[in-house]
Amino acid sequence: MSDNASYFYKFIPISYSITSEQKKDILNSFPLPDLPEGETSFNIQDEQQGNRVSERLLLNDFEVKLTKNGKQYLRLSFSNNIGMIQAKMWDNQGEIEQHLPSLEKFSVFDIEGTVDSFRGHKSITINQLRSCEEEINPFSFLPYTQQNLEDLTTELFAYIYELSSPYQDISLAIMRHFWNDFRLAPAAKGFHHNYLGGLLKHTVGLMRFARYVTKFEDNHIQATIKLISVVEKAYKNELWTGFTQEQEHVSPIVWKDTIDHLYHMLHGMMQYKDAAPQHDLLITSILFHDIGKLLEYDHAGKSFEAFKFLYPTADLSNIQNRKQAGISMDPLGVMVGHIPYGAMLLTKIIETEKITIGIEKIHEMTHCILCHHGLPEWGSCVRQPQSVEGYLIHIVDYLDSRYENTEKIK
C-alpha cells in the first residue's frame, strides 16, 4: 500500500510503501488503544453563565485556599477529553474537611454545579461532589490527538521497517517493550503535543522532517535552508494576518524569535557539510529522543513498566499505589528528566536484547538524544551538537514542536 500526503505547510512529502499484509501485522503486533465511541464530552466553552451542569470528570489537582475574609474554599482542576475545567467549592457547613480524604484517594468524580464566567474565563462552582470507584479509560477523561491513530501507527512502523539491522532490531525491541505506554503518552505537559497520543504524533513528525532531509534532497545543508525558508514565509504570513485581523481575533505568533536560532544552528552544522547524514542512525535516535517522557510524565493510564525495566531490583510499591490523574510531572521522573532517561533506555535495550552494534554508533545515537534540545539553557546535556545528526535532530525537533501549534487538527 502506498500513502501519499504532505506535511509542514504542504512542503514535505509523506510517501511510504507498505503492503496490506504488513499493515495487518503491524496493527496486530502493536494494537491501537480503545477510544471512546459515541460519547459526547462536556465543553464548558459551550455553556452560558448560570447553566446548571452534572458531569463525570477526572480530578487533576486541588488546593485549599482562603478568601480575603479568611474563609476556606477549594480550588480544583478537572479534565475530560475536551480539555481542562477549572472549578471552586465553598466551605458550607464544613464540607471541605469532609471531602479532603476522598480527594486524596480518588481520581474520578461526579460533580453538580453552576457555570461561572469572569473576564471570558469559564469555571464551575460546585454544589455537590461524589467520588467514583471505576477503572479509568484515560481517553474518556484526557484530551487526545484527533488525528488517525491507525495511520500514525502504520506510518511509524513503515519507517522502522525501512531501517537496516541493527537499527531496526533496536527500534522494534523498544516498541515491543513499551508500545502500550508509547501509544498513549503525551509529548509535553504544555506548549506542544500536550495530549494523549502526542508522543506518537511528535515522533512521526520528526521522522517526516528527517526523511525529507535524507531521502528527498541531495544535500542536507540545502534541505535545511529550504525548511528555514518555509518558516520565513510562514512568519511573514503570521505578521500580516496579525496586522489585518481584529485585535480580539488575532492568532498567536508561532514563529517569533525562531529564524535567528535556526540560522545559528545551520551555521554550526556547516562544519559537517561533507558528512552525509546517517539516515538509519538518525531515525533510531528520533525514536528514542523523547521516549524518556514515559518516565518524566505521569497521567491516568500510564504503567510503570519503564521504571521496572531500568530498575529491575528496586522496590516500586510506593509508585505503583500512586493515584493518577491528568498530565503532570512524575515526582521521580522530573528528578532525572526525559533526556537522560532516553539515553538509559537505549543502552538498556541493546544490552537486554543482546544486540551487536559498534560502540561508536551507540555513542553517536546517545549524543543525538543528549543534544536534541540544542542549547544547554534549553536542557541540552552537551554544550553544542558534535555531529551532523546531532544538529539535524535538534533542528527537526525544534521545527516540529512549533509547527504543531499551527495545525488546526491535532
Automatic annotation (TrEMBL):
Biological process, per Gene Ontology: rRNA 3'-end processing
SUPFAM superfamilies with a match to the protein in the record: HD-domain/PDEase-like
GO MF: hydrolase activity
Gene3D superfamilies: Hypothetical protein af1432
InterPro entries: YhaM_exoribonuc/phosphodiest
Keyword terms, alphabetized: Hydrolase
Top-level taxon of origin: Bacteria
Protein name in UniProt: HD domain-containing protein
Upper lineage: Bacteria, Bacillati, Bacillota, Bacilli, Bacillales
